[in-house]
Amino acid sequence: xxxxxxxxxxxxxxxxxxxxxxxxxxxxxxxxxxxxxxxxxxxxxxxxxxxxxxxxxxxxxxxxxxxxxxxxxxxxxxxxxxxxxxxxxxxxxxxxxxxxxxxxxxxxxxxxxxxxxxxxxxxxxxxxxxxxxxxxxxxxxxxxxxxxxxxxxxxxxxxxxx
Length: 162
What we know:
The protein starts with a strand and ends in a 7-residue tail after the last strand. The protein has helices at about 10-20, 50-55, 70-75, 95-100, 120-125; strands spanning about 1-10, 25-30, 35-40, 45, 60, 85, 105-110, 130-140, 150-155. The strands form two sheets. It has a seven-stranded mixed β-sheet. The protein has a two-stranded antiparallel ribbon with strand order 3-4. It is built from five helices and nine strands, in the order E-H-E-E-E-H-E-H-E-H-E-H-E-E. About 25% of the residues lie in helices and about 30% in strands. By secondary structure, the protein is of the alpha/beta class.
């Protein structure tokens, strides 16, 4: 069984985490997500969707404000994980962390190289594309620059434009 650290923040990431949790080939040893933030007019503190999934599965959770050089990063590195899977985590991963794992992959919500960055699905819909998708790629220090491992395209339906 491959031991993984999962790193992500929004609902898209939570979906990826849920998928990994149902796959018997993987064991999630820890989850790293952005800190809880104040949201809306009332500035209510909200957990990230990934934290909600992690809590539901009794997974260890780390929420460093800044990962690089943090105590949390040292703790994650000491867990003995085989690799890292990220999906919209929201921070660059330090080389020290990447180099401490056998592998690291990123799940990106676009058919790279199109629509890099933080809102790829939105841009595909806004621009009237016929399809959107997901790319799994190797993690390197640069954003969205690793070798692509796999891609899956999905049609954008009329109801997606509502």
